Amino acid sequence: MSNTDKIEKQIILKAPRSRVWRAITDYKEFGTWFRAKMETPFVVGKIAHGQITYPGYEHLKLEALVETMDPEHTFVFRWHPGSDAQNLSFDKDPTTRVEFRLDDAPGGGTRLTLVESGFDALPPALREKAFRDNDGGWTEQMKNIEAHVGG
Fold first, then answer.
1. What is the C-alpha separation between 51 and 57, in angstroms, rounded?
2. 61-114: per-residue pLDDT in tens?
3. CA–CA gap between residue 80 and residue 143 (Å, rounded)
4. Domain-located, residue 151
C-alpha cells in the first residue's frame, strides 16, 4: 500500500461511544455534521443515498454501500470519492473504503479513528485529486463531528 492509498484521521471526542455511534450511523445525524441531505438510512448490504450540501460541492451525490455496522465499534461503507456517484456502479467502478472505529479514550470520552483506503485502485486521472480533496475534507469533518457531539 502506497502512502497515497490511505487517509487516516483520529480525534478524541468528549462524548460517550453511544453518542458518537448515533452521530455516525443515524443517517439524519450523519447528514447534519457531514453536510449532506441523506434520503435513506444506513443498512448493511444496502446503498444509502444523499445529496452533498457543503458549499461548492452541492453538485455531488453521496451513495454509500454499507458493509459493516458493529454497534459502538465499527461502521464501514464504500463510496465513489470525487465523482457524481449517480452514474457509477458499485459492481463495476472502483470505490474507496471508509471505516469509522470507536474506542474508549484514555481519561474518558471516545477515540474516533477514520480510515479511507483504496485510492490506488482509482483511475489515475481521479486518484490524486480525490486523495487530496478527501484528506482535507476528513480534516474538516473531524471538526464538524466534534462540534456536533458537543466537543
1. 9
2. 899 999 999 999 999 999 988 665 556 788 888 899 999 999 999 989 999 999
3. 23
4. no
Residues in a beta bridge with 64: 48
* Model pTM above 0.85: yes
Orientation of helix 27-34 relative to helix 124-149, angle to 10°: 100
Q: Considering the domain boundaries, does residue 125 fall inside one?
A: yes
CB-based burial label for 95 (10 Å; 0-12, 13-18, 19+): buried
Give the count of beta carbons closer than 10 Å to the beta carbon of residue 40.
13
Alpha helices in the chain (DSSP H): 17-25, 27-34, 124-149
Query: CA dist 24 to 27, 83, 86, 147, 148, Å?
Result: 8, 22, 23, 13, 10
Max intra-chain CA distance, the chain = 46
Say how many domains are in the chain.
Answer: 1
The single-letter DSSP state of residue 120 is G
- Note whether residue 40 is domain-resident: yes
Q: Is residue 122 part of a domain?
A: yes
What CATH number does residue 122 fall under? 3.30.530.20
Contacts with 10 (C-beta within 8 Å, 6 or more apart), sequence order: 111, 112, 113, 114
- Structural domain of residue 67, as residue ranges? 6-146
